[in-house]
Amino acid sequence: GKTTGAYWTYEIRTKVNEEVVSVRRRFREIVALEDRLRASKPAIILPPRPEKQATKALEEGHLRQSHDFAKHRTKLLQHYLADLTCHPHIGGSCTPDLHAFLTFPEDLGLAWPECSSSTLTRMGAKSTSFSNKMMAKKTAASTAAIALIRDIDDPDSELTTLVHSERVRMEKVHQAMPKIEATLSVMKGYGDWAGLTGMELSKVVKDVKERNDGNLARSIEQFGKAILRNGRRVRKLVDALEEGAMYVLDREHRRAKNELLAFDDRKKVLTAMTIKQQKANKALTKLEAMEAEADATHKTVTYAAFGGLARVDNQESMREEVKRSDEEAMQALREAEQIGVTLKGEIFRLMTERRMEWLACVKNVAHEMMVCSQERADIWQEAYDKLQIEGNLATKRNNLEPDEI
Question: pTM of the prediction?
Fold first, then answer.
């Protein structure tokens, strides 16, 4: 990361055709990239991007934003962009928005209005986006009377089962995260306590030495060193777990939002399909009523030629409407089926990745705990041996006659 005085920018290097392309991007451009990918790739489960840290310095425009914060975010962005470029529906398909983000050599705001350095241009882009959202809400509200959107059942039973299973899993991860974070917090607190205790004991050693009790001073010193080393090793374990296992779990926890958005894409397309099917059915019913009325009219003596021709024209117009409605309904059905296939593929993909990643994660936790336990045991064994020697020396001195000392 690099500060320009008002905000941080991040250098991104990408290898394209054996050449390394370097660009600098602001965090809001990374947010815009995610928004564009989500809009252009419905039902795709995107990797979670780094969040804006509300507890840190003010996000984009704070001159005092720390370098440690920027370094931490840089590391998260490296993981995020690696996940994007490895995503089968994004990185492997040469997505235009991702390609522009990684390679566009100038200010990205020239290509993306929502990222423009001009406040008016950004406001115009936001206004357009807001208008589109309001129109979507208005459409949804007007069609609510036509179809019970919230009560639409997914006709794909396999996908319904998968989505339910994923929701249960996400809820369990959501419940587990605070407990795991609390455990690490306790471990970190123990490491801090041990470090402070070791430092306080070093002060006690000085007081004991001033009282000419060298043996006791050496014993306390060995014990204090052991506590200090033990605390540092516990802190090292916590850091390793936060960088490894906790990162995997935290990413899984944050990805739940994107997974739910993908589920919502499926729900939206099912809603659109249902509405268009109802529209087609309504048009067909109206046409059938018109044809039945025309047949009945033909049988009456009072049938007027002019009126009959008008009814024929109305029927032809209605037949065209039925045809258009049927085509729209079929197109909506194909879109719903494609979204369903894509969503199932994404769920299965993440299931496969999760099995491998979580197995490696658990093995890593077990390894870190084992190494930490062994090293802590060695620390206390060494301290015990030295205290044992000090104790033997003290016993030997106490057994000597005063004139022999």
Answer: 0.78
